Amino acid sequence: MSLEHAILVSLLERPASGYELARRFDRSIGRFWTATHQQIYRVLKRMEADAWITAEEVGQDGLPDKKVWSATPTGRAALVTWLRAPVQPEAVRHELAVKIRGAAFDDADGRAALVAEVERYRADHEATLAGYLTGERRDFPDPDALDAQGALQHVVLRGGIAYERMVLAWLDDVLATLRNLDPPNRKATP
C-alpha cells in the first residue's frame, strides 16, 4: 500500500485541504496508516502532477485562500485498480518480541529493566485502545444506522480495537512470564 492510496480513499470519502487531510490522518486514518504532514503535502503534489487529484482554491474570511483537494476520475481508476489487486500477507517485525526472547540471555537485572519497558509499551497500547474506544463512541453512536462507507470505516476501527486488546492480553502474559522467572525468593542459577 502506498500513501497515495490512503489519500485517495480519504479524498473520496470527503474532499479536504492538505491541513484537513493531515488532521484526518492524525485522527482516524492513522489507525492503520501513518504519515507526517510533510509526507502528505509532498505526495499531494505528486498526485496532482499524475492527475490523480485536483485542487480548488477556496477563499477564507481573514485567512489566505486554501486548496481543497478532490480525487479525479483518473485517481479513482488508480484506486480501483489497486483495490482489485491481491494483498500479500504483511511481514511482521517486532523489536520488543526479539528483546523478550533475548531476555533468556540476560540476568535478573536485565529482565527487570525489560519488565519496565514492557509496562511502558503496554501503557502506550492501553492509551491507543482508549482513544479508539472514545472515537468509536463519538463517530459510530448507532452502528445499525450506518451506510456502506460508515460500516466499512467502523469495521476497520473494530479491527484496531481487537488488535489492541490482543496486544494488551499478550503483554499481560509477557509480564506474568517475566515476573515468574525472577520472583524475589528464587535463587539465581550460577
Summarize the structure.
The protein is mainly alpha-helical and 190 residues long. It has helices at residues 3-13, 18-27, 37-49, 73-84, 95-102, 108-139, 148-181, and strands at 53-60, 63-71. The protein is elongated and about 65 Å long.
The main β sheet shows up as: 2 strands, antiparallel
Give the uncertain stretches in residue-range form.
none
Which class best fits the helix and strand makeup?
A: mainly alpha
Average pLDDT number: 91
Strand composition percent: 5-15%
Q: Distance between the terminal alpha carbons, to the nearest Å?
A: 50 Å
Radius of gyration, Cα only, in angstroms? 22 Å
Number of domains: 2
- The tally of helices reads 7
Record the strand order, biggest sheet.
1-2
Helix content: 55-70%
Give the helices and strands as they follow along the chain.
Answer: HHHEEHHHH
Count the beta strands: 2
Shape: elongated
Which properties best describe this structure?
single chain; 63% helix; 2 strands; Arc Repressor Mutant, subunit A; 2 domains; mainly alpha; 190 residues
Structure description:
By secondary structure, this protein is mainly alpha-helical. The protein has two domains: 82 residues, Orthogonal Bundle (Arc Repressor Mutant, subunit A); 87 residues. The chain is built from seven helices and two strands. β1 and β2 form a beta hairpin. It starts with a helix and ends in a 9-residue tail after the last helix.
